[in-house]
Each structure stands twice: as C-alpha cells, then as structure tokens.
Specification:
Arc Repressor Mutant, subunit A, two-stranded antiparallel sheet, single chain, 8 helices, 2 strands
C-alpha cells in the first residue's frame, strides 16, 4: 500500500533519530545498515532535506542529521511527503470520485479500514521507532538478507472439465 520510498524514508529517519546525539551520519552508513540502495537513498535524503526534516553537512565530519523533532514526525507525515497519500480520499479501486454520496461497491467497508490505517500512521512517530527497545534486539542484517517464502494463495483455483 505504501511505497518502497516511504519504507526507506522511515528506516533512514529512524536510523538518523537513533544517531541524533552522535553527530552526522554518512549516507553510505545508512544504506549499508538499513539495506537501502545508495542511489535511491540519496534521492530520499535530498527530498527529506528539501522538506526541512534532515540537514546535510559537507566535509570530513559531514553527513546527515535529523533536524526536526523526531517526536513530531509521524508515519503519516512521511506518507504525505513521499507518496502524496491521503487516506481520507483514496478509493480502493482507483476511482476519482468515491465518497459517501457516490461510491464504489467496496466504499462502506474500505472507509473503516482507511480510518484505522490513518489513525495508526498519525500516532506512530519516528521517535517511537527509534526508542523502541525491540529494535535493539532485531537482526536487521538477517532480516534484509533472508529469503521470503513464495506467496501461495489460500485456495485452489477450480478446474473446469
């Protein structure tokens, strides 16, 4: 539902929030630790810099720092920035006009789900992710390099004979 750009932005910002007291972090360090392709990360960091969320310092002791308070950066803020997502307006089937007056067949059910997702993204902050004790115990390298099993449908397609 949310793009790789959003996912990588959240991971990069969490990394920067965790390193906030130690000073600037090189993009290559973030890329290697978080498993983000460096060219993609560079574009993301530039976008976050333009938005006033991160700062960049050149030179031998340069790198990126988070300059906005991580407790004020929500996952929804990042979704607005990277994906231009507004869960209040988005139709699951992609229709341009889908609201309580003119709606698709899934609208009544999707409305409740959108609200849950919106509220969740609005309440989770980068600070929370950075301070979460479970992150310290995560094997991020293992998570990045493990192969995900192939997806299998939960049903058998009927065979017409």
């Amino acid at each position: 539902m949310l793009s790789a750009t959003w996912q990588y932005s959240v991971r990069a910002l969490t990394h920067l929030a965790m390193a906030k007291e130690t000073g600037p972090v090189l993009a290559i360090q973030i890329a290697e630790t978080e498993g983000i392709p460096l060219p993609f990360l560079s574009k993301i960091l530039h976008q976050l810099k333009v938005a006033g969320i991160v700062g960049a310092t050149r030179g031998q002791r340069g790198g990126y720092t988070i300059i906005r308070d991580p407790s004020k950066i929500t996952l929804l803020t990042i979704a607005h920035l990277t994906d231009h997502v507004d869960f209040g307006e988005q139709c699951l089937l992609g229709y341009k006009f889908c609201d309580s007056h003119t709606n698709c067949t899934l609208h009544p059910e999707w409305e409740g789900i959108k609200k849950i997702i919106h509220d969740f993204l609005k309440t989770v902050t980068i600070d929370r992710l950075a301070k979460d004790a479970t992150r310290e115990a995560l094997d991020i390298t293992g998570m990045l390099h493990s192969k995900q099993p192939p997806l299998r449908p939960p049903y058998q397609a009927p065979i017409n004979t």
